[in-house]
Amino acid sequence: MPKAAKTKVSKPTTKAIVEEACYYAEEAKGVSQVKILRFGAEQGYFNADDGRTKANVKKAIEGLVGNGRLIQTKQSFALAKEVRQEYDELAETTEEEVPVKKTPAKKKAAATPKTQSAPKKKSKK
């Protein structure tokens, strides 16, 4: 019997996860590699304790720093201003485009009075 084809779940790239982690970070100075790993684990993208994941994140960070999308200060990383502006604009456009549909509250049906059932007959022994 041939094996059933596994459905592949689409996940963002590691570079996209790193950028997201830096965007949603509250620290102005930047985010450490450990916090990026924790963010990805919290979002359910990967396992933070896996050595292969750490290597992939490190490689993604190096690529983003090389492209100028991330700025490295000591051991922390922050998004470049242009990239942060892209994310801000993207967030604004998605908020404007998605109208919130208000559904009218459903009215509860009037409670119907219960009819009394006939009393149970006692069985004779």
UniProtKB/TrEMBL annotation:
Acidic residues composition bias: residue spans: 88-97
InterPro entries: Histone_H1/H5_H15, WH-like_DNA-bd_sf, WH_DNA-bd_sf
GO terms for biological process, alphabetical: nucleosome assembly
Domain H15, residue spans: 10-81
Domain of life according to the entry: Eukaryota
UniProt cross-references to Pfam families, sorted A to Z: Linker_histone
Annotated region (Disordered), positions in chain: 88-125
GO cellular component, one term: nucleosome
PROSITE patterns cross-referenced by the UniProt entry: H15
The protein, known as: Histone H1
